Amino acid sequence: MEEIIDDFESWLKNYTPVEIDYYATFDSDTGKVTAVGPSYAFTDEPHKVAIDREMAELILEGKINVHSCIIDMRSNTLEIAEIKSVFKIDDVLHRIISKEWTDIEKPDIYITYDRSKKSLKFQMTEEFSGTYKLDKQFQPVVQRKIYWDGETVMNFLITDYNDPNILHKMISLKISDLIAASKTFRSLDLPETFSVYTRRIFKNYVIEIK
Prior knowledge:
It is built from two helices and 14 strands.
């Protein structure tokens, strides 16, 4: 008996739990997540992406509704969208990068500031039925569904350069404002250098200053 106990204690000391990989399966036409679970449950499933354990557990515990989850098929990542209240990609202020400094080729939201007209124009990409035209290399454009309610408000903070604490102006608009239309704010006399911050709803934002 003593030897058996010793063997068990030795095994226990050297035991390393097997890491479980989690996956989400999804509808390849809409991106809607259909199920979440350990990898061995989906060995024959062609449409699946790996997700982190924390996210998987929140979904399996019912803290996040699986029907609110979608897969961004451009990046193969899981995102969450509610119909009435948005669970944002992140909840920290995100500085929108200038066109001349970014390698983003397919922006979701495109902002143009015209110094001579003192106007700030917002457009959503044509992928989401907006007015911003993508380069020829991305044609023909495959329409993507917006999973957020059109009444969802996007706030943009115009601040000192690289300093969100010095606010010059806050601009708000709804997603629905950018469907098949652009939104322009005029009489904006902004500093020579400034930054625009937002809490991201879409993934890729770009600003061009003319």
